[in-house]
Amino acid sequence: MALFAILGVIAGILGFLPLLGSLHLTKKVTTTSNLSHAGALLLGVLLSFLILAGALILCVAVARDMLLPFALGEVLTLSCAAIAYGIYKLVRK
């Protein structure tokens, strides 16, 4: 059970990385660029969703009875990473 919770934490961190990358990508967007701020952020959300949903589907296929600890680890890690990043950016300014 603890193994699947740890795997969920890893999947949550991997699901946060596209969001982090899209935030850094928005800094490089110019006003004449085809890739707008919203487009970059939506791309990050899409990639994050695909990673998280794919990990959940894989967990269901491998061990359906361990889905709850995996999903809780995944969701809590993603939420905590986003909150920690927001607080870091707020304090850093």
Characterise this structure.
It is built from three helices and no strands. Helix 1 packs parallel to helix 3. Helix content is 83%, strand content 0%. The protein is mainly α and 93 residues long. It is elongated, with a radius of gyration of 15 Å.
Topology:
Elements: H1 2-26, H2 37-62, H3 67-92
Helix pairs in contact: 1-2, 1-3, 2-3
Radius of gyration: 15 Å
> Percentage of helical residues?
over 70%
Structural class: mainly alpha
Give the tally of β-strands.
0
Task: Tell me the distance between the termini.
Answer: 40 Å
Which range does the strand content fall in?
under 5%
Order of helices and strands: HHH
Shape: elongated
The average pLDDT score comes to 92
Most strands sheet: none
**Uncertain spans:** none
- Determine the number of helices (DSSP H or I, runs of at least 4 residues): 3
Structure at a glance:
This protein is an all-alpha fold.
Highlighted features:
93 residues; mainly alpha; 3 helices
